[in-house]
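User:
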Amino acid sequence: MENTEKSAIPSILLILLWTYTGIDKILHWQDSRKAFHNQTFPAELAEVLAYAVPTIELLIALLLLFSVSRWWGYLSSILLLTVFTTYVGLIWVGAFPRVPCNCAGVLESLGWKAHFWLNSGMIGISIIGLYFTKKRNP
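Assistant: Predicted structure:
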């Protein structure tokens, strides 16, 4: 299998993830916005994130769609998933006084431990994709 094919496999998984989560937040806009305002950060930041997060998720999916921008898509996936995973990890260990969530559809039904490990696995997939993409473009 060529490096191009190896870098495309992880991108398909991540495109599905980012498209699903971004579109779900848009389709369920009021619930999503309310969930951002239920987070532990200031209301002004929550409002910005309510718009920014689904937009960024869909932009990452677009970056991953094209081989010319795939490296940036993998890097963006690693960064955003690291932020999400850190936040989920902090919730999992009880660092916040209440347990907010702004997860999409099926992901919302996961427990914090499962969500943490799913996100960690997706970071691993992003790193593998980045490795094969970087290797192809010296």
